[in-house]
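Sequence only, no structure available. Ideas?
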Amino acid sequence: MTHDPLLIAGKAYSSRLLVGTGKYKDFAETKAAVEAAGSQIITVAIRRTNIGQDPDEPSLLEILPPSKYTLLPNTAGCYTADDAVRTLRLARELLDGHDLVKLEVLGDAKTLFPDMPQTLKAAETLVKDGFKVMVYCADDPIQAKRLEEIGCVAVMPLASLIGSGMGILNPWNLRLIVENAKVPVLVDAGVGTASDAAIAMELGCDGVLMNTAIAGARNPVLMAGAMKKAVEAGREAYLAGRMPKKFYAASPSSPTGGLIGKA
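Reply:
I predicted one. Tokens follow.
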């Protein structure tokens, strides 16, 4: 495959699979899964993972150092724009001015569906404050475009609800978002297995972010490797361009001219 980097905020990445660092049984499993996935960008829930807030507890940075990975602090667990902004400002302090972040503002504790008015409000504040914002959002083409216009460096529509594993429920909306976007589009939430990741990439998405699909598998490390292959295969299929769908084959796949007994 030709060199085909993922470009986010002016930086090139060879991997198009972004992974979360929560829900594993321990840091050792987290590290093994991240390595098997081949990911270069890893998300960190600032409210749930120690990256230096508690000097008496093990830090994730000890096993996944910023010198090797691009950390993507996220606002998981935030339900207002103010909480999200406050959380990412704390992350910037803990990570010595790091400005690439993932914004998510949730509207409902049961479904974890995004609160789009609060998400837009937080995005405007963070962009003005110098953050490079990758943003979790509804699979709404209008909202996604608005977030791009605000200045977000990537939009991340859900495929289905966070942690549901239901896969891509509305491929048409994802296609509309991809076709209208001038920034990377990454599926975030809802991927359950490797085929879901491949489909997202075949639709033209620039990447996939996942956590539960790997951490919740019976063998997380094996699933991480499967997801790596799926994202790569889906991207190659998208670039190759699939054959058109037909109700039936109007012409045989092998030519009949020149066969013995044929004119």
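The first strand starts at residue 6 and ends at 8.
Hope that gets you unstuck.
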